[in-house]
Model the fold of this input.
Amino acid sequence: MARFASPGSAEEDIEFTINGTQITNGINIDINVAFISVPPTENSPGVPGQMAMSATDLYVCYAPNEWARFNKDNSTW
Done:
């Protein structure tokens, strides 16, 4: 479960999985994060560690030009 909120919106709980591992409370991950504009597609240009947020989604670049989107309602691209 993760909590996130974009500017002007309420915090929301989301669950997400990275490389088959569910990320839950109590796990600490060291990562360099840079927030950028929301990518329009899952293969938009990006560098691992970049992240973006919208009112409903959290976007994470996990490999060059590869994005995962985590939606509070668990929808897909």
